């Protein structure tokens, strides 16, 4: 890699020797939590870097390139999103973006690993007060268990989890999609991050196939995300007659977005040709 010791790059090596690198100034600390190895680094120019089980989760400078496309397309396509559920998202970035919507009366965030919340509150400048928002209800629990047990019904469910291994594995299962469908209101939207378009194509296809068995309509889209082996894929499941191809521009204007562009919402659905063909045959 040619980096000297001081500039040791943090590189997420994929099987094919392809990855994303950040020059790190120093490692701030690491801890083995009940669920995963958590590492925190100071990078050169991108702020702090959060890593879970050796996989980049976010960098402070650029994390909106993930949180905006994850949150705002579904929030702006839903006619009136008041009750929102976030599964994962321990750093608070997704919660922060959801709470920017004036329609939101309650945002429940269910994160399995309390240490991620604790470290994010102490060291990361991502949540920006979201954890303290009176509309926020932050729970430490397994999202699979919570969704099965809750009596609540949601307008939007957002899965901001790690990739489908370990504690996140069941979040990409047909059984979980069925429990999510049941806990959506009559008109509801479900969105999940679905991995690297080029490197996790099989996971994207598996999740898409499973979601198509459950939701009334399923959409896929991709977005260039800083820190991830981009483009990154997202899947949206629809319950009822919500049209995900259109967003409420009047609500978008107030959000002053930086990465996702509601005025060009139709460009979101761009997918490399061979991946689109695989998805259409899935
Ligand atoms: N939001 C960040 C980003 O910019 O991509 C990264 C995602 S967030 C750190 C992923 C979280 O999902 C982790 O904190 C992990 O503990 C959580 N998670 C994984 N499986 C889960 C489950 N079954 N229920 C709840 N949270 C889970």
UniProtKB/TrEMBL annotation:
The superkingdom listed in its UniProt entry is: Archaea
Recorded hits in SUPFAM superfamilies, A to Z, give: S-adenosyl-L-methionine-dependent methyltransferases
Which CDD domains does this entry report, sorted A to Z? AdoMet_MTases (cd02440)
Which residues participate directly in catalysis?
160
Q: What PROSITE patterns has UniProt attached to this entry? A: PABS_1, PABS_2
Question: What region holds the PABS domain?
Answer: 7-239
Gene Ontology MF terms in the entry: spermidine synthase activity
Summarize where spermidine binds, as residue positions.
Answer: 67, 91, 160-163
GO BP annotations, alphabetical order: spermidine biosynthetic process
Pathway in which this enzyme or protein is active = Amine and polyamine biosynthesis; spermidine biosynthesis; spermidine from putrescine: step 1/1
Reactions catalysed according to its record: S-adenosyl 3-(methylsulfanyl)propylamine + putrescine = S-methyl-5'-thioadenosine + spermidine + H(+)
Which parts of the sequence bind S-methyl-5'-thioadenosine? 36, 111, 142-143, 167
- Enzyme class name: transferase
Report the Pfam families cross-referenced here. Spermine_synt_N, Spermine_synth
InterPro entries per the record? Answer: PABS, PABS_CS, SAM-dependent_MTases_sf, Spermi_synthase, Spermidine_synt_N, Spermidine_synt_N_sf
Keywords, sorted A to Z: Polyamine biosynthesis, Spermidine biosynthesis, Transferase
EC nos: 2.5.1.16
Q: Which family does it belong to?
A: Belongs to the spermidine/spermine synthase family.
What function is annotated for this protein?
Catalyzes the irreversible transfer of a propylamine group from the amino donor S-adenosylmethioninamine (decarboxy-AdoMet) to putrescine (1,4-diaminobutane) to yield spermidine.
Outline the subunit composition.
Answer: Homodimer or homotetramer.
Q: What is this protein called?
A: Polyamine aminopropyltransferase
Q: Which organism is it from?
A: Thermococcus celer Vu 13 = JCM 8558
């Amino acid at each position: 890699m040619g980096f000297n010791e001081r500039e040791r790059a943090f590189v997420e090596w994929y099987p094919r020797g392809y990855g994303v690198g950040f020059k790190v100034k120093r490692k701030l600390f690491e801890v083995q939590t009940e669920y995963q190895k958590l590492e925190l680094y100071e990078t050169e120019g991108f702020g702090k870097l959060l890593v879970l089980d050796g996989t980049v989760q976010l960098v402070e400078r650029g994390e909106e390139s993930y949180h905006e496309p994850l949150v705002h397309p579904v929030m702006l396509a839903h006619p009136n999103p008041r009750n929102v559920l976030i599964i994962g998202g321990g750093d608070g970035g997704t919660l922060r973006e959801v709470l920017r919507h004036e329609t939101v009366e309650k945002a429940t965030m269910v994160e399995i690993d309390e240490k991620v919340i604790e470290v994010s509150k102490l060291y990361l400048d991502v949540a920006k007060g979201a954890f303290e928002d009176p509309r926020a209800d932050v729970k430490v629990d397994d999202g699979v268990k919570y969704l099965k047990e809750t009596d609540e019904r949601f307008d939007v469910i957002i899965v901001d989890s790690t990739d489908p291994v370990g504690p996140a594995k069941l979040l990409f299962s047909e059984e979980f999609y069925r429990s999510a469908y049941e806990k959506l209101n009559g008109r509801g939207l479900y969105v999940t991050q679905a991995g690297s378009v080029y490197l996790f194509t099989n996971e994207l296809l598996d999740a898409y196939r499973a979601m198509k068995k459950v939701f009334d309509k399923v959409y896929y889209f991709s977005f260039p995300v800083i820190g991830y082996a981009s483009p990154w894929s997202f899947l949206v499941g629809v319950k009822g007659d919500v049209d995900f191809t259109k967003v409420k521009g009047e609500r978008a204007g107030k959000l002053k977005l930086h990465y996702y562009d509601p005025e060009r919402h139709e460009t979101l659905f761009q997918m490399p040709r061979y991946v689109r063909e695989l998805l259409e045959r899935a």
